[in-house]
Amino acid sequence: MTDAVRTHGLVKRYGSQVAVAGVDLVVPAGSFAGLVGPNGAGKTTTLSMITALLRPDGGHAEVDGFHVWRDPVAVKARIGVLPEGLRLFERLSGRELLLYNGMLRGIPKADVEQRAGELLDVMDLTGAADKLVVDYSTGMRKKIGLAAALLHNPSVLFLDEPFEGVDPVSANTLTEVLRRFTASGSTVIFSSHVMDLVERLCDWVSVMSAGHIVAQGPLAEVRGGRSLNQAFLDLVGGTPHDREAGLSWLGARPEDAR
Amino acid sequence: MSTVLLFARLKVRLLAGNLRGDAQRKLGFVLTLVIAAGLAALGFLLMSLLRLAPGDIAASLVTLAFASFFFGWMIVPLLAFGLDDTLDPAKLSLFPLRTGRLAVGMFTASVTGVWPLATLVVTGGALVAVASGPGGVLIGVPAVLLQFASCVVASRLVTTSLSGALRTRRGRDLLAVSALALVLLAQLPNLLMNRGFSDPTALLHQMAAVLRWTPPGLAAHALADGGLTGLAELALLALLVVVLGWLWVKALSRALVTPDSSTQAASVRRGSGLVGRFLPDGPLAAVVTKELAYIRRDPRFRVGWASAIVVTLILSFTVSDPGRGGGGQWTPIVISCVGALMIALQSGNAFGIDGRSLWMNAVAFGSERDLSTDLAGRHLAGTLVAAPLITVLAVTTGLLTGHPTMILPAMTAGWGVLGIGFGVGSVTSVILPYTVPDRMNAFTGAAPGQGGLAFLSALGASAGMALLLAPLVAGLLLGLVWVCAVAPFYGLLAEVLGRRLGAKLGFARMPDLLAAVSKPT
């Protein structure tokens, strides 16, 4: 079985700052993979480079065995993307956005209409389908973004913080759809820093810290008997016990001194 | 005093922080500095040259100048240039600042900057122009300062009291389009002058008389009169500034606690499918449909199109003035070409309005061909709106000027110019892309720090179009009307070649293009 995603020494610098310092990410096909790491670890930059939205300064990436920068047609037909933030065509309605997306990829209009209708239905967006995206809430935007990413039936789905700012009901809808998607043998890769969610959903975890992959493998292996949260803190060095000395004033009230 | 220093330093920090690490932004800022310094020097010079004019004319002109600064400060920050986009009172609302201190701080932040300084310098020019003797200067200095303060306070008052409306999408959309009315209004004196109110001096004095008791009028008169009257006028002006300031503080404390008014989302009509009926199913139809929806719905598009039409109308109204014999037989051709040019200039940064959503195209486009299709769709949508407009323009100017034989040449020439504009625009769109901010100021060229880039892009587009237009113009100058018949084909050729070149260059640098149009605004 080939890997859905494999990168070799991906590097990205912004001026003197190194955002991604040689990342070798591996995600087996058919897995529900979580890319976790503290803020600024380089998760978004890595995902942008794999999805050809950002040119790497070094290294290369492969999706389903196709080179991202040398074979863009094959790669772009296979991937679905939901980037960070909520960047969508704001002045289209949800339905128009899906139609635009599908037709841009050359899918016949009748098929796009049918798929869009079903996706809107599953995402519980039928009532808002003809409202402009600019008036959507965060959860609705994430859902319509996911619908747009799924529309052309990709084999690998990249989601950057798909659950950030999403209410529990919408989050449940999103996970249901994603579970169905991976059950059919497709791959999902999503970045997050909500460990509980990753632990619940994923069977494969890659941990990033300061531009490097510090651990990678099946969930049980990375976890090693601990909770994922503890394993994560151990890996990225976030245990705070020796930092408490400088905060003696915190919580102290003036009236206590009297 | 510490508040003043603190906020001045904060503003300078913000300005400096905006520039860090980005050569383009630095370049843009330098360009802004040069332009502001140039305008300040020029304005100061022009103002001081009024010294040579007769006293009453100088006084009236100073009144007019002061009034235009005053109203300019009220209106321009709402619409354009992001004069003070760094300090939103809402950002400071969580700090334990009393409203008074906050107001002092915001005032300081507003006057710290390039454009306020330029305004102050130009206003100072009035001292040279009309103040007489040491007594005049003694009254003049506070008059200039008060005039400047009234500009800033009035400007803040207007923005703050409108901020509630500006936070809703509908409010912003409306404001963006209503800005057009102002453009029309600004043209009014010009048109009046053209229309036979032939005594400019009388008109000048009339306008100055109307403005006599407004804050800028008071300041100007205090400067020119001097003496006790001047002092009284200054006192009145100071009182007015304080009242404006007090109103502003009130508006500020209200704006800070008034929540975002939610937007009532309305449904849009489902597409009529007209495009789908005439175009083959596929990416081209998708782009045309999306682009037509954007032209209808996005305020930046609406303003762009409407201002192109309005400017052309004003021009045709001025040129084809029946009072002057209706213009020559070439007038219809010139007008329709200018109209086409105005419309085509909008395509010089085709991806700018897509902005951060352009990734959706980027992840779908696997080849140059896809990008070329995208550009073709944009051009086709533009043509669907522009071609009928140009036709109407050609017919009306042809009839109004009394040269109906020129209607057909004017029409075809206009179409040709449109094609040339699209061709050049495809190339500038990918070479010099910049972010068009999605804010209320739909007139703004670019995101903070990209102003210079926007300027370069417009310059490049104009130069390219001028170059490609040269053969047509040369033909017309020689009196060869038949070049108009060739123009549409020439335009089509320019569009196809420009689009190919743009797609080739653009596909290779797609990530850079994406980054350039996704700047924070």
List the helices and strands and how they pair.
The complex is a heterodimer of chains A (258) and B (521).
Chain A: E1 3-14, E2 17-23, E3 26-28, E4 32-36, H1 43-50, E5 58-63, E6 66-67, H2 72-78, E7 79-82, H3 94-104, H4 109-122, H5 138-150, E8 156-160, H6 168-183, E9 187-192, H7 195-201, E10 204-209, E11 212-218, H8 219-223, H9 228-236, H10 254-257
Parallel strand pairs in A: 4-9, 4-10, 7-8, 8-9
Antiparallel strand pairs in A: 1-2, 1-3, 1-5, 5-6, 10-11
Chain B: H1 2-19, H2 23-49, H3 55-79, H4 89-92, H5 99-111, H6 114-130, H7 133-167, H8 169-194, H9 200-210, H10 215-225, H11 227-257, H12 274-278, H13 283-297, H14 299-319, H15 331-345, H16 359-362, H17 368-400, H18 407-431, H19 451-477, H20 483-508, H21 510-517
Helix pairs in contact in B: 1-5, 2-6, 3-6, 3-7, 3-9, 3-10, 6-7, 7-10, 7-11, 8-14, 10-11, 13-14, 13-17, 14-15, 15-17, 15-18, 17-18, 17-20, 18-19, 18-20, 19-20
Structure description:
Chain A has 258 residues and is α/β, with parallel strands linked by helices. Chain A has 10 helices and 11 strands. Chain A is globular, with a radius of gyration of 20 Å. The model of chain A has no long low-confidence stretch (mean pLDDT 88). Chain B is 76% helix and 0% strand. Chain B is built from 21 helices and no strands. Chain B is globular. Chain B starts with a helix and ends with a helix. The mean pLDDT of chain B is 81. Chains A and B meet through α2 and α3 of A and α13, α16 and α21 of B.
